[in-house]
Structures are given as structure tokens and as C-alpha cells.
Write a structure and sequence with these properties.
Layout lengths: L1 H21 L7 H7 L9 E13 L5 E11 L7 E8 L29 E7 L5 E12 L11 E3 L4 E6 L2 E8 L2 E8 L4 E8 L2 E8 L5 E12 L6 H13 L6
Parallel strand pairs: 4-11, 5-12
Antiparallel strand pairs: 1-2, 1-12, 2-3, 3-6, 7-8, 8-9, 9-10, 10-11
Amino acid sequence: MRNPLWLAMACLTASLPIQAESFRPVELKDHELASLRGRYVMPGRIVSFGIVMTSTWQNAHGDVIGATSTLQVQQSTIKPQFYVSMIDEQGGGTASAGAPAAGNGTVTGGAGLATTEGVTQVVRAAGDNNTAYNNVDINVTKASQAPTAQPQGQALGTGQTLTGENGAGALSVSASGMGVQFTINASNNQGSSMQRLAQGGLMQNSTLLGSGNRVNNITSLNVVMRESVPTAASLNGSLDQLKGLRTFGY
């Protein structure tokens, strides 16, 4: 009668090292922690996530070329989609005044800008009386539901490019599998600007070769978080699960 008892004890003893091995903590390396930092949010907390990008160029005569692109993702969103609204404004200058004087500035270097990571903001100017503004906003608010907003402008599909042109210059807004990019080439060699959101990074780059220009590259990241307070029932449930670990020796 004792043989079954000893056999059961032997099986339990043999299984203990295996169980201990399965519960052994695993140490995370620094590079693994770096890839997780800032990327965890409790399930159900994000109500809405949106991006608003605007790029404009105004020349010395007041002509403005640019665009605004918006994207909003929420629970009901089936496919994330950028919508683009073009900006085309005529300045107060008269036709007889002609175009602004051609820019004669020279900017050299900058090859390394193509390999930067994260957020990169660059302004290089070789003219006078210019204003350049690069800015990134991260706005986190709390609400129970996503803001109601109808998409404005034209849908920008992957591989598609939207263009515009006036006295200030030529604009292109393009989307690819790598992201969205705004490019403005100002008239009369006044310079150029580029704003790109792609591959986890943001580039805002303005080069001014003439005078009297105003350039803006602005991106806003808008996150709406649900303000959830743990209920007594959920807290008790968590405590009961923790108490159950005592039987295993934890």
C-alpha cells in the first residue's frame, strides 16, 4: 500500500525544479527597456489620437502657399486617413510691383540631416528680415469620448501627391508607406522648406536664401485619455488574485 504513496512523492519532488525554473524572473537588458520606454498605456485608456501638420511660406509681397493635413484615429476608425486642405492666399502687392527680388544667399552643408532620428528642427538663413518657426506640440487631455470633427479637405492616399502653386512658390504634399511630407520651393530663389513625419521621426527644415519671408512648420499631436477610476470590485478582484499566489509560496 505504501508503493503508490512513495511513487507520488517521487513525482512531486522531480517536478519541483521544473516549476521553479518556469517561474524564474527574466532580466531585461538596457536596450530592451529603451524600446519599451514611454510606449505602454493601460488598455482602453486612449479615446482618440490625432495629428495636425501645417506648413506655410509667405513672401515679401504677402503671398502665402501652404497646406494643413489632419488625421484622427478613434475606436470607430476603420482605416487611418490624412486629409489635406490647401492654403493659397494673395498678398497686398500689386502686379506692377513685380516679384520680390531674387534671393542671392548661399547655404552649404547639411548632408547629415538625411540621417537624423527623432525630432529634428533646422533653420538656415542667408537673407535679411526673415522669420522661421518650427514647433511641435503634444497635447494630452482627458474626456469620456472622442471630439466630434468632420474631415476637412481632400483625402491623401498612399502613393498620392497633391500640388499647389502661386506667387509664393510651389507646394507638394505626398504620402508613402514611410509617412507624410510637405515640400515648398519658394519662387525667385527665396529658399525652400520641408516637413516630414515618417519612420517614428519628425523633420522640420527651412532654408531661406532671400529676404522678407515668413516660414512656418507646425505639428500637433493630440491625445485624448479616458479618465478611469478603479472601482472597489476591480480592486478586490486584483487582491484576491494576489492572495491566491500565497499557496504557491509567493
